[in-house]
Structures are given as structure tokens and as C-alpha cells.
Design a protein that fits this description.
Elements lengths: L1 H9 L1 H6 L6 E5 L6 H12 L2 E4 L2 H7 L4 H17 L3 E6 L32 H11 L6 E7 L3
Parallel strand pairs: 1-4, 2-3, 3-4
């Protein structure tokens, strides 16, 4: 964790000299094992700003339209670039990036619309697009996701 997250995030020189560094991480494990605490320790050690894009924050604050979600992601990425180093934190990231579930023949899963304001997964595409623009070799921005359901 020190080599892949703390050194590149804390030092612009390390980030420029080692461009092969990974820029997004997934912490997974049972509940109560300290995944969120590790993220906070990383932010403390590197003096980074934390932007919390967890599903419960996205739903409570930006649930009116797709354009509001896009504006939110744009504001987060632009301010993260301006005030580097930055950690973009996504707790319970399985709600935003859901995997494909196998269903039984007798079981029908309810369909969730992508643009539904109550669906936290609606920011997935926007987040991926802005990540390509702003999270690169020159910026000290890291995306950390935590889940107990990988």
C-alpha cells in the first residue's frame, strides 16, 4: 500500500517518475475489518482531501436528474485536480458498479433503469469518462472503493 498509493499520492516527483502506478483501488473484506479506516489513514498520511461519492451520499444530494449527477462528478474531478492530492472514496461500490448476477429460472429480478434518480449506478458512466480525463500521470488523484461484496 505504501509503494502503490502513499508514495505516488504524497510526492509529485514519485508520480512523474513512475507513470505505471495504479490509480484506482478496491478494498474488500468482511464488515468491520478496517477498510474505511485504511482509506482515512492514506488520506491523513498524504494530507489529501477526501471526496466521498458513496451511494448514500449520491442518492441523498443529487437525485433529481442525470445532468445534476454529471455536474457533481465534474465538480469533484475539477476540484480534486485543483487541490491535489485527492482521494475519491466510494463506499459500498457494488451499488454503483453492480456485477452481473446469475438468476434462477423461477426468479425474476426487478429491472432498475439507468437514469432512475434512486439508482446510484447512474454515475458509473460519467465517473468513468471524467476519470479518463483527470486521473493520469500528471495528477495526484486516487480512486478507492470499499466493499464487502466483491
Amino acid at each position: 500500500m505504501t509503494e502503490y498509493i502513499i508514495f505516488p499520492l504524497g510526492s509529485p516527483l514519485v508520480r512523474k517518475r513512475h507513470p505505471e502506478n495504479v490509480r484506482s483501488f478496491l478494498f474488500y473484506g468482511p464488515a468491520g475489518t478496517g477498510k474505511s479506516q485504511v482509506m482515512r489513514a492514506i488520506a491523513t498520511e498524504t494530507r489529501a482531501i477526501i471526496y466521498d461519492l458513496s451511494a448514500y451520499n449520491v442518492n441523498e444530494n443529487y437525485n433529481t436528474s442525470k445532468s445534476d449527477s454529471e455536474k457533481m462528478i465534474a465538480m469533484v474531478m475539477m476540484s480534486a485536480k485543483k487541490y491535489q492530492p485527492a482521494v475519491i472514496y466510494i463506499d459500498e461500490c457494488e451499488k454503483i458498479f453492480p456485477g452481473k448476477k446469475k438468476k434462477k429460472k423461477s426468479q425474476k429480478l426487478p429491472k432498475v433503469k439507468k437514469n432512475d434518480p434512486n439508482n446510484p449506478g447512474r454515475i458509473k458512466k460519467t465517473l468513468s469518462t471524467w476519470k479518463q480525463k483527470f486521473v493520469n500521470d500528471e495528477t495526484r488523484i486516487v480512486i478507492i472503493g470499499c466493499t464487502n461484496e466483491p
